[in-house]
Here is the input.
Amino acid sequence: METKTAVLSDKEKTWLSRIGANPSLLALIVLVIFFSFLNPRFFTLSNLFNILDLASLLIITSLSLAFILMMGSIDLSVEGVVGLCSVVASLLVKNFSNSNDFGFLALIICGLVGAGFGFLNGFILSRFKIPSFMVTLGIGYITTGLGVLITRGNPVVITDWSFRLLSLGKVGFLPFPFILALGLFFIVWFISERTAFGRYVLALGGDETIVQDLGIPTSRIKTEAFLIGGILYGIVGALLTARLGSGDITAPLGFTFDSIGACVLGGIAITGGVGNIPRAIIGALILTVLRNGMVLMGVSPYVQQGIIGVILIATVALTIDRKKIKIMK
Amino acid sequence: MEPVLKMENISKAFPGVRALEKVSIEVFPNEIVGLVGENGAGKSTLMKILAGVYRADKGEIFLRGKKVEIKNPHDARALGIGMVFQEQAVLPNMRVYENLFLGREKIFARRGALDQKLMMQEATKILEEVGLELSPQVYVHELNFMERQMVEIARNIWLARQAQVDYPTIVLDEPTTVLEEEEIEKLFNKLRELKKRVSFIYISHRLKEVVELCDRVYVLKDGHNAGCFSREELSEELLRSRMVGRELHEEYYLASRQRKPAEKVVLELRNCTKKGAFYDISFSLHQGEILSLCGTVGSGKEELCRVLYGETKFDSGEIWIDGKRVSINSPAQAFALGVGYISEDRRNEGLVLHLPIFENITLPIIHRLVRGFLVRREEQFRLSQEMMNKLQIKALSPSVLCFNLSGGNQQKVVIAKWLLSQVKVLIMSHPTRGVDVGAKHEIYALIREMAENGMAMIIMGDSFEEDIGLANRIIVMKDGRVSGVLDATESKPAPSDLIQYVV
Here is the structure.
């Protein structure tokens, strides 16, 4: 019997070999070095904190997508739910449209609203066995529609300055949203690695029938994963309102595919079963560094989108598990 | 001694088939019990009943003397019955210890968080117990087939212990098919060691291994018990003779309509090898010939056919069609060269179920029915109606969806499709599977007619009788090589002649 002693245990690995084994982290480091050489303004303290600030919302939505992609599902309702929660937040704090003043309670209410739609996503797709792709697309439309209905399409301007500190405040040099994103990251990471639920999510992405045959309640797990995602979207909605000073259904345009893209860039396979939560944060940072670096270099925004598109396709081509997909449609 | 497991008078029928008829088996502690029989003899149905996948129509199951109801796989596991199938139930994307405890993590949870240290300790213990020397941290995709099997066995033993079952019963379904000689020996040594604590039911087509390993062997035939033999009386010869021995009704397969094939060779294989599947296969197929490929699942015959219709490629060798050397890289290319394929899985591979009959029948030749940019629908209808009349496909009109047809009629639509496209060589995998007796007969008649019209066919039948009855010539494959070639044109060989080459 050959033994597998050649495989190093986690503790034996040096930090250098870990970076080598993680191409996404390597890519992030190379990108940072690359932009630092090209533009002296890139590697400055203010710009680096700026990047963390810019990345924080994307990190939070990517945490959700990481869970969902690892499970083998997808979530296209990010923009809708975030947008609706942004509107809800703006209507709950002091604003020009009504006389509410819930203050920071609005953040929690947004989390609950998001949780509600996340639950709906998970419940519908597991109960009626509809692909997550369709269900979340539908919920995305519904939430966007609701947001437009409530606001008649106009942004709701808020006047609660203390609420805006949620996004604009800093602790020392660190932007507050990034601290929050980091906190959520550790919670979600813990759930993923150290709870049975978290492991089932990954197992489901590996092979659903095997998981089911072992008597694991797959429907409940799917619902819970989408519910957690919903909570995160709610928080992002509130943060977005705090950042922009208004609740706007159209503000999170692009969030859905940015989050999916971040996960893919971080090395989470869209076919499910492969990945971990830190990869989401790495992916989100890659995407943000790319954008920031290209802006500093004066690359046209249209060209920027194109470059990101090319990188995304290349990454998927390298990481996708083709054994799982017999025919691409 | 009391048996650990007793299945008594188990009967099970599927639409059109009696899968099991009063089958009984017993398993004692410290025993490896073999279960052998032809394809379709009922082995897997019996085991699926034990695993809770199917429910028996009649009969009782006793565990350690107590009558039990096994309603689903979950029940079976709780009663200490484990299954290790060829399609492995381990998740390659997770670590060994995670696989071992999947679904039972609760007992390792401390305030909601999993105690990984404890899991590792427990995993190391079980792995040691089954003699698997590897770190529980390793990902399953890094393990080889046998190691994965052992992980599954370890999981089943552990699960049984959790359910407080002392002597679990673990079913091993064809565990050696993909193993090398020396791995098989290792596996057997492990099993012999493990039987101190576990009873095994060992299903295999490889009689030599069954004789070597098993303490007792049950033979099933056509869903009946066909004998049980202890270690002392066991021999390959004996098992072989009990596995076959049905009477053959020649006319059932319309042997009188059988003709001598033409001289012309339509397809020839020269020294074809695909590593891990088949080695050095050469044969030629004549116009109007029906050639049967026999062999167990995993003998390489399926792989060989997949190469012929272009789904996979071989590593070395030559294919000649009509005297020209060709290469077949895709099913489309195979079709262009005149090779058609009828899959056993016609619902997924043979038909577009949600399209009407006429669309299905004319699908391969649709480019011939085009005028300008448009497909001539009236021509599609006319041709389809013609085929439907000829093949007696029972449907109101060509626009009925294939979804609504019976298995036999669906199969006829598939055959019609290839008839219309005038392929020269037709490969048929289990053409009568899941088809009732009447339709079977009609399909046999069709096969005869196609042969008379000069089509060459390669058939993998559902039983030896079918293979023998239909074929002009039979090629038997075993472990990827041709183990025998029998002529069936002049006189039909008996199934017992055949089986010695098969197992």
User: Anything to note?
Assistant: The interface with chain B takes residues 1, 3-5, 7, 9-10, 190, 194-196, 199-200, 202-203, 205-207, 210-211, 213-216, 273-274 of chain A (CB under 8 Å). Residues 44-319 of chain A form a domain with the ABC transporter involved in vitamin B12 uptake, BtuC fold (CATH 1.10.3470). The mean pLDDT of chain A is 89.
